[in-house]
């Protein structure tokens, strides 16, 4: 039972993360008027920084860089979409 509760919490957190990332990426793409690799990178930075902000400015910077780097890596691995 505890595993199910923990899995449900992870699923909820992943859903929130995905919704934030997708929403921010969509807003950035609409604002820029371009569909390129930089939209998910900037979105990753915004979402990573936002989710890490409670830890202070240093944590927000690390979250921004980490999520942006991960987004860039995934785009390089998966190719253009």
Description:
Helix 2 (38-52) packs antiparallel against helix 3. The protein has helices spanning 2-32, 38-52, 57-78. The mean pLDDT is 94. With 81 residues, it is mainly alpha-helical. It is globular and about 45 Å long.
Structural class: mainly alpha
Task: Give the tally of β-strands.
Answer: 0
- Name the shape in a single word: globular
Distance between the termini: 39 Å
Using the CA coordinates, give the radius of gyration: 14 Å
Number of DSSP helical runs:
3
**SSE sequence, one letter per element:** HHH
Mind describing the biggest β-sheet? Answer: none
Topology:
Elements: H1 2-32, H2 38-52, H3 57-78
Task: Produce a short descriptive summary.
This protein is an all-alpha fold.
